[in-house]
TrEMBL record:
It comes from the Bacteria. It comes from Parathalassolituus penaei. This is Outer membrane protein beta-barrel domain-containing protein. Keywords: Signal. Residues 1-25 form the signal peptide.
Amino acid sequence: MENPFLNRSSLVLGLFLAVAPLANAATDDSTLNNPEVLKNLLGVLGKKTSSDAAAKGQRNTYVPPTDTSALDNTKVMQSLFPLLAAQQGVGNKPDSNPEVLNDPAVMASLLGEIRKSEAVGASETDNSTSVLDDADVMASILPLLSGEAGPDSDEIFEPTPRNLGFNDTIPTRNGLIGFGLARQASTAFGEHTLVTGNARYHVSENWDALLGAEVSVDSLDNPEITDGSGTVIMSSGRTFRVFNAGLGYTLLNGLTSFDGGETYVPWKLNADAVLGQQFTGGNNGMYYGFGTSLQILKDDYWIGIDTRYFRVNDDVLNKVGTHRGLQWGLTAGFYY
């Protein structure tokens, strides 16, 4: 009596022995490319199908396929893959009907899917290695592997320094000559307007010799001044003139801009002290003062601001009050 279990067991053993070279394609990738292997497997399946049909008194309808595209039945593979996983030790015991192993189409589809998987793997390998055949890629990688620095790029950012358009040194000159207008506020005689002239001679890098002259435009608004006998020694509303000389010391040198930072000009801040004589009408007295002056030095001319505290020691003016106060003015001039 024929034992179906033994027949199925023999079939399973024979089929897995036949499929083993294909399942292990990773160690011998030429097996799936050998048409003789597929031909022999299909022949074994055909013979087994014929013998099974004769034993059951049935007609054999299976013809081994000659076109490998007939091996791509995915629905059948869904039932057979659990069995293949169990054979390779990567899955649990398959929960499938063993009768499906008696279907030659099942095994034929299994072989087709194995060939497709092997073809996809080979394609991925080719894609991953074909990049290394590019000469430009290898030329970029080799310097990194050798630890050598790559070639310098032609696109390195090299900003051009901004040209501020100025000379950071004060022009070398013998001195300055200037003229201006000043305003004087006196504690005894009110405010007056002066016309001024001055000159500076550069004795050294920091020291200047000063020379100045000032003439009042309006009168002092002084009252008439008489002596003890009633003689008029100074008539009211007199004008005055001042001549002085002195020294200036440079406190600070710097740069300034008047056009938003495009061009710069140098400047000097000085401390000045002067001593001289003031002539008021037919009388005179000693004049002295000290203050500051600022010059902005352009290429061909200079402009400046002067401030000063002054005092006049005049015997006649002292009869009507001490003559002292503040003075400030604007000047402009040229170099010599």
